UniProtKB/TrEMBL annotation:
Entries under PANTHER family matching the protein: ENTEROCHELIN ESTERASE-RELATED, IRON(III) ENTEROBACTIN ESTERASE
Gene3D superfamilies given in the database record: alpha/beta hydrolase
Natural source organism: Bombella mellum
Protein name listed in UniProt: Esterase
Lineage top rank: taxon: Bacteria
Organism placement in taxonomy: Bacteria, Pseudomonadati, Pseudomonadota, Alphaproteobacteria, Acetobacterales
Amino acid sequence: MLAPDGTISARAQAAPADCMTLEALQPPQANTTDPQKPFYIDTSGLSGIGAMPVHDPHNPLYPQATDLPDTTLPPVEAVGNFILGPTHALPAQWQDVQPARGRLISFTLTSSPNSGYHPGIMRDEPEPCATGMRNVSTSQPGDPSILNVPGAHPSPWTRTVDVYVPPDTPTGQPLPFLIFGDGGNDGIYPGRDLFALVDRLTAEHRIPPMIIIGVGAGGGDAQGSERGREYDTMSGDYADWVETHILPLVEQKAGITLSHDPEERATMGFSSSGAAAFAMAWFRPNLYHRVLAYSPSLVNQQWPHDPSLPGGGWQLHSPWAGTPQAMPPQPGAALMPAAPKAPLHIWYEVGDQDLFYPVRPMPDGMHDWVLAGENLARVLANKGYDYQFVFSRNARHVDGPTIEQTLPEALEWLWRPRERPQDGQ
């Protein structure tokens, strides 16, 4: 996640060495040798340099991608897979950017019987370490894809919603909008810099005029938290909650009308909120057609466990890893490969040092963030999706320099004019 000044926040940086070491990231008793057995973890193409493994973008497991000269970005009209160089310079759109000139409306929501997601969930950490859950949780015997989380219990939540209305926005017509998770006071996001960037890109006619909505997370992180429950659940629940509990308040408090055209609605997120951005569009394509995500958690983070989708976000692109792919397809089949192409436009990124097995008791073959992104890229290419996938060298999970480098191009790519897609095409 990003701090308001565009830098990586303390929350997003690696935990202290005694809490998260490379050795701790290697799950004990993991199957790393036999791909024909359940829960296989492929460690080819990984090095032990740094706090996280470094992924090789030319790993033969991954679909082919175009290497870009250092400091350059993919063409804004291009579709496919691209590899950024290791230097992440600020593009021209960030140079001398002026402060945002529009209206910022903020309001707070608190959980209640009428708020949705009531009661919330929180997890008591058993150690004085942000990663204590990783060391005390256990997976179900015989099925490491099911995580038992001690200390999770009902809890209220409070969150902030920010609404940015750019200058000279017409108020007498339905307006396009971009909504992103991990916003609000407790979130780590581009903040006013995003709003100023939107002003500039709009003035340069690179994107259409639009409303920006940042929704705070429900608290905590990962399994056993309200944030994890909302963002990592692979269903249309979060999109429905936004539609029912957030967007009407946005319209009321900002005095605007939001578009109901899914071509004029975009979702954006970071890490687990990036997974939520995918879920909002995939499960509710009648509501959203445009997706932008950094380091999306398209892995098995869903909690509580859902036996109808045992791999959580991993199953958007790949089969559940508990059985060989030749086994009967349900309930472990991958969703996107088996379904008709949805009318979506997708831009997303992962870093070469992105997350790899942050919870030690889960040697389930479904916790490699980079492999998840690469698997999705293969699916999108095979199905003929309108997408751009960026693999960033010298980049960690939700990498601040990479976001600063790519966000102007990503927004322009996401909103560039296209022929209106049709379902199944």
